[in-house]
Sequence to fold (329 residues):
Amino acid sequence: MSLRSFIGKQFIDVIDWTEPGDGILAYRYPMQDREIQNGGQLTVRDSQLALFVNEGKIADQFGPGLYRLTTNTLPILTYLRNWDKAFQSPFKSDVYFFSSRMQTDQHWGTQNPITVRDKEFGAVRLRAFGIYSYHLADPKVFYEKISGTRDQYMVSDLEGQLREAVVGILSNTFAQSNVPFLDMAANQTQLATQATELLKPVFANLGLALDTFVVENLSLPDELQKILDQRISMNMIGDMNRYTQFQVAQSMPIAAANEGAGGAGLGAGLGVGMGMAQTMMNSMKSATSGTEAAPAAGIATGTKFCMECGKPMPAAGKFCPACGKSQPQ
Fold:
């Protein structure tokens, strides 16, 4: 090395890194035309890790702390370079810093519905979304498999790969859970716990540790949701007989408040209402049993109600035998 080249070099006494913003996972310390001074100082702050790479080979790793760079603190690098224990000259090495902070509020979601089998509905297509958080735990694995020699590696660079891994694991989780769709909302925590156990090895394989995983919502595509809503509505009606009785009971105050009808009007209203209710119930029974509906209880075939007093009378009668009022034909 010429004297001019030696003078042109810069020697580094202090190596440290402060994150300028969020979202940085790995950062390569600038070493162009610079060498590290023997006995220099390395500062690794809390929520950081540091890695020394020499001639493409990973050497020493450092956690949070203050280090004096000597053969005692760089044992692997000393071995790779065949240094004497008392080396004095500056040395060249690549230094990478890694952020081990928890990366929170990472969103995941199923871009396309996941098809799963449901005992009640058959094949069901589900959509799901939620959030998760993780942190960088093993810088060696992350450097070898993910970041490499890039000057900077961001959370956004990894987002797509992690999202696909999450959706792939969730597809298996939903398929193997055997939880009916209608019960999934009440078991979202359980499903998230199952997914977390399956996702942890996937994250560890990338040098990451999964901290939290949350299933926020499960839903059906719009067309299936409409069908489910219709089914829920039918289930809410329940027993049609009781529903009809309720409707008749609701109409009683209205009939009682009908001005000018008097007691006869009330009786007529109740009689007609009960007849209609019985007819509706018989129709429902006929539809479900496949048999012809029986005549209304207490009402013979060919019978009608008096328009004045509401009492039954022959269908062909022109005058009510009870009150004597004429009837329209």
